[in-house]
Amino acid sequence: QIVLVSGHLDSWDVGQGAMDDGGGAFISWEVLSLIKDLGLRPKRTLRLVLWTAEEEGGIGAEQYYQLHKENISNFDIVMESDEGTFRPSGLGFTGNAKARSIVKEIMTLLQPINVTDVYDNADGTDIDYWMRNGVPGASLHDDLSKYFWFHHSQGDMMTVQDPKQMNLCAAVWTVVSYVIADLEEMLPR
């Protein structure tokens, strides 16, 4: 059984792609790093996927889905961060009411950093194939007030990334993915 965390590696040639989507790839990688460093062993597999060809129509995600769709019942949740890694506010979530209730309860663990909201509908080109076929999905919600200042532009450089905000995003991503991976049962569908 698999909890998938992800971001995409490709970017537009005008910038470095630090925000779109280096930040999402980084916080997804950081999930595995933090869990390993803490010596935690969840009940389910945490799988990192760094998508490619997202900016060219999601070709990599489609190929991944085609290769793994026969095991769709083993995918507990698919998570994608692709809208920057600014100050997080919560998660977008796609799934049924019971699964949403569980995710809302998990988010209460993040009250100390004031990141508890659960919004309707996860957003992610690369996880859309899974969500359309019933797998719960989550996306990071963060402060998008500056996102389009840098999106697909020469401004999408490493200087856009704020280490403190990225650490908060990584904390959210790690807590949610680890707790779901360590639940007694998979999220209801």
Automatic annotation (TrEMBL):
Residues 2-173 form the Peptidase M28 domain. Keywords: Carboxypeptidase, Endoplasmic reticulum, Glycoprotein, Golgi apparatus, Hydrolase, Lysosome, Metal-binding, Metalloprotease, Protease, Secreted, Signal, Zinc, Zymogen. One of its GO terms (cellular component) is endoplasmic reticulum. It comes from the Eukaryota. Pfam families: Peptidase_M28 (PF04389). Its main location: endoplasmic reticulum. One of its GO terms (molecular function) is carboxypeptidase activity. It is found in: Endoplasmic reticulum; Golgi apparatus; Lysosome; Secreted. Belongs to the peptidase M28 family. Homodimer. The monomeric form is inactive while the homodimer is active. This is Carboxypeptidase Q. It comes from Heliornis fulica. The gene is Cpq.
